[in-house]
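Data deposition worksheet. Section B asks for the primary sequence of the deposited chain exactly as it was used as input, without tags or linkers unless they were present during the calculation. Section C holds the resulting structure in token form. Section D is free text for depositor observations; keep each observation to a single sentence. Incomplete worksheets are returned to the depositor.
Section A, Depositor: J.P.
Section B:
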Amino acid sequence: MPRKRKVEDQWMPQRVYKGRSAYEFKPVGGGTVRLCDVDAKQSEVWAAYEKYMAIANNKHTVQHLVETFFDSADFRDLSLHTRKDYQKYSKKVLSAFGKMDPNTVTPVHVRKFMDILGQKSPVQANRHKAFLSRVFRWAYERGKVQRNPCQGVKQFKEKARDRYIEDYEYDAVYQRACPVVKAAMEISYLCMARKADVVKLHQSQLLKDGIFIQQGKTGKKQIKEWGPRLRKAVSTANEINPDVFSMFVLHQKNGHPFAVASFDQRWRKAIIKAREETQLPLDFTFHDIKAKGISDFEGTVSEKQQASGHKTESQVRVYDRKVAVVPTVESKK
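Section C:
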């Protein structure tokens, strides 16, 4: 049985004792943890004890903060794409900061973390910092932390992608792609849609007036009008495992939609085959197909914005990559 405390020490937390120079906590497993100076007030002793226990129980760490954020309504309100990205970014963030007290994380720590990631990928370093900042901003607004250590930490400069796919490059890959990739390329191009919105396209989204698409990133709802080429793309999709009933336009033999990794593998095969047979570099991504669609869409920036579903004209300009043909002095005469 533990020794009975002296009357004057009965106010102390359990397993806390007054040492020569400090109040100390004696964990069950042995050892001694210094809590505060011996001349501290009773309230200060209790505060130090509660802080230590919170950390010991993993309730006052960045790990716990991130887990609480992932369980919040704010996180659930984010798009599926963003939620998946945040969960992916959390792995490296928690590897670096997980066991730290959130209030001890400083801009210097964040800068060092970014510099290490930035050696391989400055863009990824920026994305990880943005995630960490989102967590701390959420926590600060709810009184869980004293500050956001990401504020004032400069991001790496990013160069906007300006790769425009020429028609002959698009055709080179399209002609050598499997039906799954062919259908996805055409739907992405004609509808100016993201890969994630195309790969998970549901049969119920094929309406009388066109294809209903709610963008996973912006939540924008649109019906993309039918045209001969778009109808042909859906017919190509129907040729995929025709004897299999599926609720998805692009589906596997078991009727399930393609996972991103599985679809990406098919895309890479088409690109590699096209490179080998044409000797063209074909250094573009599937995401660049959406940009080609916006670039080829005939209309003003405002009209492109309405058709593509972007929130601002500045976002549209990022995707509008075709080099403009402008008059010269003589052609204007």
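Section D:
DSSP finds 14 helices and five strands in the chain.
The longest helix spans residues 122-141.
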